[in-house]
Amino acid sequence: MTDDLGTLTTFSPDLPGRPLVGMTVLVVEDSRFASEAMRLLCLRSGARIRRADCLRSARRHLQVYRPTAVIVDLGLPDGAGDGLIAELAQATPRVGVILATSGDDGAQARARAAGADGFLAKPITSLAAFQQAILAPLPEAAGGRALRALPDEEIHPDTFAFRDDMIHAADLLTEGADARTLDYLAQFLAGVARSARDAPLEQAAAGLADRRAQGMAAEAALARVSGLLQARISTAAPI
């Protein structure tokens, strides 16, 4: 098998704790906190990582590189990840592994319908679950194997990546956000909050999304979200 530069790649699935050596993972994710989790999972597993923060950037990557696996967040700033998953699933040659990720409980069915091989529910912290999700769809010759004993270990992203997401969200609010931006903001914050296990922020984001979906005034919900964002920026961590 060849890697993203067209050179011969030798997978080493039996290296203790590093079964993804020789693989490249493209992570399409707008959250810095979630991306940091993916970076740590790839690093601990032996895989190289490339990151795209939107659909447009992902498509640019895919014009140049051929990763072993692509992990696509379903909610991105320039559209839903379902479309990219469908493109990848129908492409020839096909990427070896296509995974979707989301903090939305109902997203797995959407991902499967689009053609994803698997689904990673946020928060993604289990090293074993991450490695198995990538290995399971691969043929044995390319590093895939049947279920195996994998390390029972969790990763913990740096809280400064979480703070970067909070600053980004606060910047969106200060720009006089339009309806589309507010809808994206609610979805973005819900995903980040779930990844960070920040229940108050997740509830506030859900409240904002509900108000928007019902066409109701959202000033109070926005004020609550804004206050929580400022509190988390000042502490650099979930509260």
UniProtKB/TrEMBL annotation:
Domain of life, source organism: Bacteria
The entry's keywords: DNA-binding, Phosphoprotein
Response regulatory domain residues: 24-137
Any one of the GO BP annotations: phosphorelay signal transduction system
SMART domains to which the protein is assigned, alphabetical: REC
Modified sites of kind 4-aspartylphosphate: 73
Coiled-coil residues: none
GO-annotated molecular function: DNA binding
One matching Pfam family: Response_reg
InterPro entries for this protein: Bact_response_regulator, CheY-like_superfamily, Sig_transdc_resp-reg_receiver
Record has Cell division as a keyword: no
Protein name in the entry: DNA-binding response OmpR family regulator
Native source organism of the sequence: Actibacterium naphthalenivorans
